[in-house]
Every structure is written in C-alpha cells, then in structure tokens.
Write the structure tokens for this entry.
Amino acid sequence: MSSTALHCLPMSTASVESPPDVRPRDDELDLFGITHQGLVRETNQDQYLLCTVHPQVVVHGSSLTDISALMLRGQRVATILLVADGVGGSADGTEASRLATIAVTEYFASAVKCWHAAGSASDTEFTEALRLAAIEAHRRVKEQAQAHLEGRKMATTLSVGIVVWPWMYVLQVGDSRCYHFQEGTLRQVTRDQTLAQEMIDRGALTRERAQNSPLNHVLSSAIGADEAMPELSRVDVSQRGCLTLLCSDGLTKHVSDEEIAAECARMTSSEQLCRALLDKALAGGGSDNVTIVVGRALPQD
C-alpha cells in the first residue's frame, strides 16, 4: 500500500451510529508495549503506558469479618494506550515525556465523569476533556522547565489512544504515530506535526521529497515547546481482530508503512508484533529510541 494512501481521520467523518453491543471482556484484550534505547542513543527518553479504567469498590471499614467479596472491580470503562517521545539529546527530554505521561493520566482520572459521554452523538464534553489533558501536560512541562532549567526548554511528543468501546479516540501532539490495521489495510490515524508535513499540506513539498528532508523531524507542535496544538480523531474499533499500533519515530525512521503492514498481517500476538517491529528498527540502524504499543480485541471463534 502506498504511503500516500494513508490519511488522518477527522472527528467529523465518524458516524454516530454504534455497532451492536459485543464489548470484549478483559480477558479478550491482547495488549503489549515495548521500549528500547536503540543502538546510538545513550539514554531512552521514550515513555509508554498501557492501562484499563474501571469503577471499583474500595472498603475502608466494615464490621463484616470477610470483606473480600466486596472488593469489586466493575466492568472496564476504557483502555488507554500512550506513547511519549522526549525531544532533545539530554535528560530534559526524559523528564518531559515522564511529566506528560503522568499529567495526562491524572487528568483522565479526575475527569472520569466525562466517560459516559464518549461514543454518543454529543461527546463534546469528553473530547474537550482529552484536549484539556494535553493542555495540562503542556502547562506542567513548561512550568517544570521554567523552575529548574534556567531558561532551557524541554518538550515531548504525545500520542494517546483511548478506547471507549466501540470507538477509539486519538489525541495527538507531535510526530509519534497511531496506526489502525483492519482487513489487511494499514491507515495512519494521526497527522505528523512537523514542518515537512505542513509544507506537504500546502503543496510546497512532495511526500517523496519530504522523506529525505531535514524538516521531516522538525516539530511544529510539541508538549512543552512554544506551541502545542492537540489534534483529535475518532475511529471505529468494533471489529474483532483490528488492531491499534502507537509508536515513536524511532520505528518509522527505519521501518516503512508497507513493512509495518506486512508484519501486522502475519502477527500472532501483540507481543510478537512489537518484538518483530523492534527487531526491524534495530536492524535498520536503530538511530533513535524505539517505542511500540499494540492493542486489539482477540478475534472470536
């Protein structure tokens, strides 16, 4: 599949009609993440997170002699997949990606009242919470830099996939990527926020020339940078076996979309796919940190 066929999926294109309710159980989720510093970098500035969100009963006191039956975890509300790629060649990038990961997760937890709106025709409250989570991460990273870095800046990319079945909401800042693979087709859900991509959008640069352009990895938006411009997408992930893949650009610098699609087509598990793609990135040079997160609902018999 030609890379020019890949595109971002804007919020406005997603139907508000929901498929029949066959929500996967927790034991039907196949989730895995991996990160590696690569073969050139001395440190790993990438972060990733895989988690599920549940309502839970926590007993703080009772006259009952056995409260174990009351310690209940409710049905999964959401699944979160996150990749953050610290910018720069120092420990500042590591701290930026760490702060962004924590800030976004904490914001999601505090905004749990918005989860009920996800997937509805009026999910504006939920999508606004996602946007504000990125803004909060941006604020926290900038504040930390001002307080401790004596005028230096630190920044990070941020790609988050939040599955509130049957939809996946994708939050994007920077050039880490989110892909969706279904029925043999790989689609890039996110848009790279780079100077090269902006020139492509304006028709000033072809996609082929951009691949070798020095602007290809110059960010136009990042958490903690001068400007952070969160972008949101929504994707239907109700079909069993379709998968979501998030990655830092340490993978896509060395592994083409065609190669990623081929590995997705022959995957046996999320762990196997992550390790196969990491091996390809390292074999291609491993010039950057590599982080890959994969999630899917297992196909039904």
